Amino acid sequence: MKILVTVKEVATVEDEFEIEGTEIADQYLGADLNEWDDYAVEEAVQLQEAGIADEVVTVTIGPEDCEQTIRQALAKGADRAVRVWDDALEDVDLLDVEAKTEILRGVVEEEDPDLVLSGVQSGDDSWGATGVSLAEELGFEWAAVVNHLEHDLDDGIASVRRELEGGVEELTDVELPAVLTIQTGINEPRYASLRGIRQAQRKPLDVQTLADVGVDETVVDSDLELTDMYEPESESDVTVWEGSAEETAGELADLLEEKGVAP
Amino acid sequence: MSDVLAVADHRRGDLRDVSYEIITAGRELADETGGDLHLAVISGTVDEFAEKLDREGVDAIHTVDYGEEFNHGVYAQTVTQLYDDLAPQYVLTPNSVNGLDYAPAVANELGLPLVTDTVGLETDGDTLTATREMYGGKVETTTELEGQAVVTIRGAEWPAADGTGDATIEAFDVDVDEDALGTTVNGFEEVGGGDVDIGEADVLVSVGRGIEEEENLEIIEELADALDATVSASRPIVDNGWLPKNRQVGQSGKVVTPDVYVAIGISGAVQHVAGMKGSDTIVAINTDPNAPIMDIADYAITDDLFDVVPALTERFQ
């Protein structure tokens, strides 16, 4: 069985930051592997270690800068990576779900996996929709927000649990091929070993253009336009205690006594 | 092409709150487009649901008596067929776990733009302006689009519709292609039971990502002991396996309403806040004065938890 994992480098933002137009100014941004994708990679690698998957391939849409982040997934055990990038994607400030779906479809059709794992959402723009949209596009089955996957995958069925709201899980069988969107907590993502990190540098990372994956440049034309970005107005009427840790702890202690909850 | 179609959410015999909120969101849009608000209620005891959903502002309710529980294939096929019938300008679904299991498929199938997890919506009848969050709530954005769209709305952002409506309630004759249903729901399980019920605690000492390492939980346990309080946690702590699931506060965990909730190293993501905003008094200990938890905290200490927590414990020993 072959597993494709969609991964994304996400932007992280410092506590204090400034907005320029519809973007956060560069100097306040960092980069990391999307948290949800880290769990998806781990799940795929575990399936490989269990002898169920023969090959784990990651796919990302991103510029050359993101290769170090993408190699984190290789360091954790994925076999090789595909990175799609194109001049046409360079200045796009909103790559919508439709565009991501079309681009990833090209890669999935080329790779022909039995199972696609993607994160439930990305930590930066949080659309939470690409996995299910991709499944529909491919004619695959799917399940969103999966927090448990049985590692047998017998008879072409993935038995999963979907994490519903309020501490309820839905037990569902999904026919393969399928896209599962993976929720945090499904496993404990490993840290890459030094050996893994060294090996990752030598693993294949194949760069493809839009034309290579059979997608026209017009894919970037979106119906959506990002028109504004701002810091939400705080509705806070919080009382902030100032002073040393002893002083502020003292204020809190007094409050707890006043509320009658301290012993 | 001016109507709005909204889809209700229910589970195990109960309509979820967002089903009433989506009526409000849908009515606001329909007032601007000059169209009707249609509601779809799919699977389960649809007649009973339809009666409850017949609130002020709803023009028509379409019931689909097919199966008991949510199945994304049934929902996707039904909504697509209703769309073909009604040609609405906007299709609204909840941004719930189930909403995200069919709305993207519907948008893709219909070739419509998709905007998810909206917290505000406006339209002038043609241009839709959607407010969304990015970077875990650090910023809000507006996104505009012309014409038709599929939109998912976040729960608890719109008030629930009330009053009694006079909607027409009709069974919608959906043609479900059963061969295309590739998932089977076998049941449900409540998780997070066990020895401790954080929902019963008067005082919760709740810990989040700011604690950094599992061994640091010790200072939280010591504080809870000194206060005779119960330890709870935000999602990352449970995801890491540092505390069991029955300690998790939030959308996918427990909803708690203690007398005092002390949030330690918790940034206050919307999913967490949904589980604790009903607490009587909320105290936040967090180095980031702009963390979203400050929006709902009554008192805050913007200092290092590793200094404040031991000092507090000492006061009660």
Automatic annotation (TrEMBL), chain A:
<dbReference type="InterPro" id="IPR012255">
    <property type="entry name" value="ETF_b"/>
</dbReference>
<keyword id="KW-0249">Electron transport</keyword>
<keyword id="KW-0813">Transport</keyword>
<dbReference type="GO" id="GO:0009055">
    <property type="term" value="F:electron transfer activity"/>
</dbReference>
<dbReference type="InterPro" id="IPR014729">
    <property type="entry name" value="Rossmann-like_a/b/a_fold"/>
</dbReference>
<dbReference type="InterPro" id="IPR014730">
    <property type="entry name" value="ETF_a/b_N"/>
</dbReference>
<protein>
    <submittedName>
        <fullName>Electron transfer flavoprotein alpha/beta-subunit</fullName>
    </submittedName>
</protein>
<dbReference type="InterPro" id="IPR033948">
    <property type="entry name" value="ETF_beta_N"/>
</dbReference>
<dbReference type="Pfam" id="PF01012">
    <property type="entry name" value="ETF"/>
</dbReference>
<comment type="similarity">
    <text>Belongs to the ETF beta-subunit/FixA family.</text>
</comment>
<feature type="domain" description="Electron transfer flavoprotein alpha/beta-subunit N-terminal">
    <location>
        <begin position="21"/>
        <end position="217"/>
    </location>
</feature>
From TrEMBL, chain B:
<dbReference type="InterPro" id="IPR014731">
    <property type="entry name" value="ETF_asu_C"/>
</dbReference>
<dbReference type="GO" id="GO:0033539">
    <property type="term" value="P:fatty acid beta-oxidation using acyl-CoA dehydrogenase"/>
</dbReference>
<feature type="domain" description="Electron transfer flavoprotein alpha/beta-subunit N-terminal">
    <location>
        <begin position="4"/>
        <end position="185"/>
    </location>
</feature>
<comment type="similarity">
    <text>Belongs to the ETF alpha-subunit/FixB family.</text>
</comment>
<dbReference type="InterPro" id="IPR001308">
    <property type="entry name" value="ETF_a/FixB"/>
</dbReference>
<dbReference type="InterPro" id="IPR014730">
    <property type="entry name" value="ETF_a/b_N"/>
</dbReference>
<keyword id="KW-0285">Flavoprotein</keyword>
<protein>
    <submittedName>
        <fullName>Electron transfer flavoprotein subunit alpha</fullName>
    </submittedName>
</protein>
<dbReference type="GO" id="GO:0009055">
    <property type="term" value="F:electron transfer activity"/>
</dbReference>
<dbReference type="InterPro" id="IPR029035">
    <property type="entry name" value="DHS-like_NAD/FAD-binding_dom"/>
</dbReference>
<dbReference type="InterPro" id="IPR033947">
    <property type="entry name" value="ETF_alpha_N"/>
</dbReference>
<dbReference type="InterPro" id="IPR014729">
    <property type="entry name" value="Rossmann-like_a/b/a_fold"/>
</dbReference>
<dbReference type="Pfam" id="PF00766">
    <property type="entry name" value="ETF_alpha"/>
</dbReference>
<keyword id="KW-0274">FAD</keyword>
<dbReference type="Pfam" id="PF01012">
    <property type="entry name" value="ETF"/>
</dbReference>
<dbReference type="GO" id="GO:0050660">
    <property type="term" value="F:flavin adenine dinucleotide binding"/>
</dbReference>
